[in-house]
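TL;DR need structure tokens for one chain.
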Amino acid sequence: MPIAASGCKAPTKTVAKQNSAPTTAQVRDGMGLDLDSQEAVASSDGMVADEVVRRPTGIADATTTGLPVGHLAGVDRHGITWTFDRPARCGRYVNGDWWVLGPISITSIQPASLQDGLRVRHGSMRNPSPTSLTQGYDSAMFGNGTSGRYDANANIALDVSRDQPLALAPGTSLVSTVSHPIAGQLPQVESCAVLTCIAEQPPANAFRPPYCGTDKLPRWTADDLDMTQFARLEPVAGAPSIRDLIEQFERTWLDHLPGYTGRYLHPRKNMPDYDRDLAELVGVGALALQLDMPPGDKRPLVIAMVQLGIDTFGIVQNGGRFLADGGRGSGRKFPLLLAGSVLHDQDMMRLASERKLAFGEDAQTFYVAATSNGEWNHGHGGYGPNDVGLPEWGDRHADDPSHDRKAWTADPYRRCCTANVWHGYVLAARIMGLRDAWDHPALFDYVDRYMQIEVKGEWMRGWNPFCERMWDRYRGQF
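>> reply
TL;DR here they are.
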């Protein structure tokens, strides 16, 4: 379904779940090695309930070795196993990800990062920087094994062993990946997981700190969630299953690489690779949270989406951007505002406003204005005096307005891959009273204009039928 960079054509739109209804053994994959109350508390929030208790090969637990409760020889998450040089105090954040008290050394990461000919696979990075254009996960990320975007020094997993352990200090997020077995794939990463090394045990129900940056303090807990922020609206036809949505949000969205190359980084099992589809999923999740159901049923999805917002906060706070370019850059601001709203975190809300051009939707929408020398929009796009105040869209408006085009069909990305998914979370933001906090009215006014111009029921108006029906049913009320 992704739209080729050379243009757009009407796709065959299929609405399908990523997986059929899972068995209990498929619900979560983590390892329960003598977990104490940390897991019990997390289970009460629904994120690690029905966890499969299993032991990765070669890792013993406290019940067989007499270790103190909560001390583990290694932990496993989403098919990635980290083995320690000694039993260490471990636990889980409310979203199910592991923390370990450090300093600690890792003697094995499985699957092992290895070099096969020219290619290096299954890499790991420490506190990845969102301002870097390179990555240490897979040398075939954008090529055939010799890509200049791979930084061997950034891959701290290569050749890790008992004889050559990897030292982790408190204040470290270890992001480990599983590569696609074939080079040159889009995306190149199959899965990823985060292990956080900290100095002190976090509170029960703590959210995992962002994987970008060095601040790993447990600033937020699920006990802080304000569930009154959500509406209880009657659902429309095609409403999604909350359980299915949890499965699509619960894994880490690896999203720190800016621009088109970030699409190769998006783990296939964790998130959509194309930003239009990512934004669609955010819109579906945002509107599902507004439906009439008990708060307890919504809570696991809220936890998963708030964790996504926390990770987005870390990316933007540490200098990252989601570059506006065609169908790229959308879908990241709503999770950040969602997290800030339900956690009542003013730093998140302030960042969403101050760094608005870090987000694709805001960087692409604007009001036509008169500029110097009797020009409109700096002479770009064919606008005139009658267009002043018009809410508009430009492919790369904030960075390069020369690509702006007044003609509605001049740029295919206007209709294929942007506002036809934006209306889901724009409506959710209205419902939650977040329009002012979003602090970019041009987006809201442009989406109103877009939904009035495009033909109801066509995919260029509503990529997701549920979101389009919610818009048509409830926009007049909010």
